[in-house]
Amino acid sequence: MGDNTLRIGLLGCIRFASKFVRTVTQSSNAVIIAISDPSIETANTFAAANNLSPETVSVYGSYEELLNDPRVDAVYLTMLVTQRAKWAVTAAEKKHLLVEKPPAQNAAEIDKIVEACESNGVQFMDGTIWLHHKRTVNIRETMFDSGLLVDIRHMYSTMTTLVPEQVLERLTKEAMGLAGAIGSLVGTL
């Protein structure tokens, strides 16, 4: 691990975070060094399922413990969206943030997260991958900065997918809060 290696901790051990772990393990400039979940059993199960060695990855049974680990540079927040703003603001006191989408329940929560990051001099990035991908920069440069397309002000896109009923039931439980785009859609009906 070089001096420029980003040392990442996970706040929340949901299944989706496994994709993030796989991506980081393939990176030459980042490493997972800690994971946490309010349930230590869940954290240990996640660590084992993702081949995270106890010799190199600390496993914590609380978010506070991970946030107090001085080795962690940045955290990836994956807990329920109903809890993300609170933990993002708390984490921003010490760590850079990558917050899974949606990063908050509303614009006011986003404002609090951004304000906390700015006042503590840490970076904030949401999990909307395409916004941060180099292809997006290339699209802007090729289509807009070059003058090829000058009158377009907005671009809209739609993606649809069949969601099995049992998944929809799980994602729309009131205790889950807004569960991503599906929860947002169902919450407005």
From TrEMBL:
GO terms for molecular function: nucleotide binding. Pfam families: GFO_IDH_MocA. This is Gfo/Idh/MocA-like oxidoreductase N-terminal domain-containing protein. Gene3D superfamilies: NAD(P)-binding Rossmann-like Domain. Residues 6-125 form the Gfo/Idh/MocA-like oxidoreductase N-terminal domain.
